Each structure stands twice: as structure tokens, then as C-alpha cells.
Amino acid sequence: MKQLPIYEATAGRSHLIDGLKDIREGLESRAIWRELVRRDLYNKTKGASLGRWWIIIAQAIAISGMGFVYAELFGITLANYLPYLATGLVTWGFMISLINEAPDVFTASKGYLTQTRFPLSVCVFRYVTRNVMTFLYKASIIVVVLVLFRVPFGWSVFVAPLGIALIALAGFFIGVILGLLNARYRDIGQLVSSLSVFLFFMTPVFWRADRLGEYSWIVQYNPLYNFLVLVRSPLLGEQISYWPFLMTGCSIAALALLAMITYRVYGREVIYWL
Amino acid sequence: MTDQLSQSSEISLSNMSVSFPLVRYQARQSWVKNEKGKTGGEIIRPERGIARIRALERINLVVKTGDRLGILGHNGAGKSTLLRAVIGVYPPTEGSVRVRGRIASMIDIHTGFDNMASGLDNIRMRAMFMKIPATVVKARLPDVANFTELGDYLNLPLSTYSSGMRARLAFAIATGFDPEIIIMDEWLSAGDRSFRDKAESRMSAFVNQADILVMASHSDHLLKKVCNRAIILDGGHIVFDGPVDEAIELRQGGAVAAKKPA
Mutual orientation of helices A159-184 and A243-266 as an angle, nearest 10°? Predict the structure, then answer.
């Protein structure tokens, strides 16, 4: 006789093992979040005939505008500045949209979550994948700029994909943390969006950290900057010290721990708050 | 126990409660002391912390293969919440739920539809949301597609469909695969007069092949025709569990409240 599936739920807080089960179920339902990501990307460009190309075009316009103005303001040649800015802005966009969209991870899937049983992780995978896809589209600009300005390549270039993977992993945990918290306390989403511009100017994305002079050590403790360095420096053929690895590693460990705590406290009740 | 051997479908709820927290809601002192309402679960206002609505309280229920369970009760009695607890949307806030068998929820048969995709693509997507394996979908696709009688429209995007055509598509998919357990909020039907007869016989066949049916309904006629067992919910409690005829009689007589168990 065929094996029948079993659904079982007992009252009480969710355990770590429930979380792992949820993630496994989420991976098994990857067809669902792939489909949802496809729709998200389609909706982002609202049926424009150029479709996803607009993601690239918008980013290219921003980079060229900022590139000309700030190269002049900082007194650097375009050939020096544009590769730095392009890699910086694109990677920054990846990180900040992961942060900005994290609070809505579960609230945005309310319709699905309240109609059928859905692993919660599907919502998180959907949001991470959507952002990775958007980043990969925009990364085509990086490739063009690097080739155009003949930035030398080295073996260290292979660190960049690792950096990208680490950002995606951190994004997964941030989605769990902010998504659950925001389902309960809607102020979280407001707080995060008010912080994002502040973070942009505080992080050396379009300016160089050493311009801060004696204060430049401060940015070394900015986790966002360390994730950024892990992607940007290898692409520009710069040396990387152990420091960004240490900082990003610690950040991910801390985020993982926080994600487990928020899941344990809020994971079970989230459906009642949507 | 014969759990592993028999592998029959079963729903079992033990001491299960579901209560909804009232977040983002500021209670104002009401002007009038309201009389106890006739609908809805009890509202619990603790001294500290958030108020909750107790939608279901200590439900004990076992539904076995062969059962065609009807759920009766007035608005806000907890019928939909009970259905959603069984399909796994609401985890219990007390007690436990255990369901063996593949569940098909007929509560909202439009979930997962994409307006920009073709009818055929929507059949695949909707099946995906119902967690039906790709091989089964492939085998059943022609049957579902033919049943809709939508012809060439199946290759056009859903946004070109009338609401009736949309309902046909949703109905055909919902009844196109055979689950062990069917969860329903009122009987399903679709389409115009000629389609309605076809839909009716398909629906009956669909329900007959299932091990278990759980259906909330306000229609006495339907309950008598389809169900072989009924429960009455009142204020989140099961106040009656037994034959359908008796349940309907009880509810009409209004004698239900008196039978509330301790």
C-alpha cells in the first residue's frame, strides 16, 4: 500500500528542528518559489516590452551619472573611478535591497500563507532568489565596465562569488529576523526604510574609506562595508586582508543565532499576525 | 498499533484550541455594555498582554476513512477556522492536530492563479500550489483541459477570461486530482446551466473516491445528501456529534445550547 503523508502540529513554541524541517520542505517546493520569483520580476517592470532589461538600464544610468559628477568632485580620472563606483553601487544595491525587502518577507505572502499550508521558508527563498537574480542582471554592468577600462584580473577574482554567496546567506537570516519581527511589530519596516539612506552615506560605496583620514578605522567595523569589500576588492584586483573574512564570518554567525532565536519565539505565531 | 500497516486516512484533533491574538487593534472603552452576542468565539481580555479571540476551544474529534463529515454552526461558530486548522494553515494554540493522507483544500480554489499566464500554464501552476507531483500533473493535464471546454482559450492568458470561464478552469483543476482527504467550505460548482450538470457529476465522483470529506455548510439539503455524520459548532465548542438528521433537527429546534458539554 502506498505511503500516506502525515501532517502533525502540537501547540507550543517552534523548535530548531521544526525550522530545519521547514527549510527542507521549502527546498522541496522550489518549483513554487521559482514561479513566484518569475512573477515578482515581471511585476517589477510592469509588463514593459524591454522587461528585465530595465533593471540593467536604470542601474547603468545611475552609475554613469554619479560617475561623471563624483570623479570630477573627487578629482579622480573616470578610468580610476568608474570601476570602483560600478562594483560598489551594484553590490550595495544587492545588500540594501535585501535589507529593505526583508521586513515584508512574510507579510507579502499573506494571501498564500492563509489559504494553504506553506513552509515559511518558501517566502524567504523567494525573497533571496529574487534579489540574487536582480543582482546578477546588474552585474552585467560590472563586467562591461571592467572590460572597458581594462582592469587587471588576478586569481583573487574568485573570492567575489564567495562574497556574493555570503551576502545571500546573510540575506536569508535577515529575512527570517526582520520578516518575523515586522509581522508582529510593523514599525520595524518603517525603521529599516528610514535607515537605508543613512547607511548609504555612512558606508564607503562611492567614496574611498581612506578619505576619512584618522577616522578611517571606524568603517572597518561596519559589517556592510566588509561584505562590500569581499566582492569589490577582488574584482578590482586589490589585495584583501583577513579582516573582511573575519568580520563577515562573525556577522553571519551572529545573524544565524538571532534568526534561530526569532524563529523560536515568533515562528509559530506569525500566521496569526499577517 | 496498526498505524504503519493499515495506512488508512485519518484526522485526529485532541484538545485542540485556536485563538487569534488581536494585534494592531486598540480597544476603546465601549459606551454600552454589550449583551452577550450570538456569534463568534469568546473574547479574552487579560490584565496584561494582548487580547485574544478564542475561535476553537478544546476540540476533540476523530474522522476516519469512510466518514463524510458535515460541519454546522452559525456565522463565527468556528467552522472555517476548524477547516483551516485541519489543512495546516493555523497551528493549534493548545492541543494537537494529526492528519494522515493527502489533503485537498477546496476553500479557495483560485490561489496561485497568474493573470498573465495561459490557461494551460495555470493548470500546471495551480497543481504545483496543491503540491501534486509533476508526473501526475502531466498524466492528468489532458483530462483537466478537456473538461473545461475552453478550447483555444487555454492558450490565451487568464486575463482574457470571463469570470465564468475562470471558474470553470478553477473547478476543473480542483477536481482533477484524487486526494484522500477533501476539505470544503460549501459545495463547489461552476459555469452555466449545461456545464453545471457535468460539474455536478464530476464533483460527486471526486468526493466519492476520497477516503474522507469534511464540509462546512449551511444547506440542510446538501448535508443530508452528502454527509453521513455531522458536528455542530457553537462559540468554538463541539456541541453535537452524531447522525446528520439529528444534527439538523437539533439546530432547527435551537436546543443546541442546552447540550453544551461541561
Answer: 30
